[in-house]
Target: Endonuclease III
Amino acid sequence: MKQTPKEKIKFLKEVLGTRYPEPRSELLFESPFQLLIATILAAQATDRQVNIITRELFRAAPDAKSLSLLEPESILKLVRSINYCNNKAKNIRSVSIILTEQYAGKVPETREELEKLPGVGRKTANVVLAAAFHQPVMPVDTHVHRVSNRLGLCHTSKVEETEAALIAIIPEPWVVDFHHYLLLHGRYTCKAKKPDCPTCPLATICPSTGKTTS
DNA sequence: AACTCGGGGCA
DNA sequence: TGCCCAGAGTT
Model:
């Protein structure tokens, strides 16, 4: 069963949406600022953790200025239950101050500016650019990278090349959801060490099925 | 390239 | 219980 990358994407869209929970896009799109903060907090954390924390956090401080005015201890208390809470509390406070003082409280719309913010790397920047500003960029983490290569959507060890390959074949409105679903798929099924091919809904189109590759 | 941060999820 | 990270920053 040979399929073009675009045909595979269409198949993924149909199948993965029924296997994994839907992304909480209504929260993510409340404002670019809240998306940015939630994405910073999301590193090495779960959706559930982030949803719980951000609900409280954004009730206390819905925008950059109000977050910048909170005491550091108050912010730490709000994010204490998440991993790397000390770093993240410090980072989101610094980010809110920088945005307030240098960007009139708004989120910059270039990757160069975003990556200068503490706690924001390439992946987080791309999430914001794609989800909040609808720019044609693809967020790629270790899961998306690994799964994409196994599926034959790309053949590279370089994240930048995976980004380029994916953005070329994924319909723009589905980029953010694609990232969400492939991340979950990589986490729970297409695992790094023991991929669960027997229960994988993509096995029929996946050239790596049955191969215990890396 | 290797190491750190560090609570949670999962086997 | 123990292992492995939904990254980013530092060395």
In short: The radius of gyration of chain A is 18 Å. Residues 5-23+137-205 of chain A form a domain with the Endonuclease Iii, domain 2 fold (CATH 1.10.1670.10). DSSP finds twelve helices and no strands in chain A. Residues 1 and 136 of chain A are 30 Å apart (CA to CA).
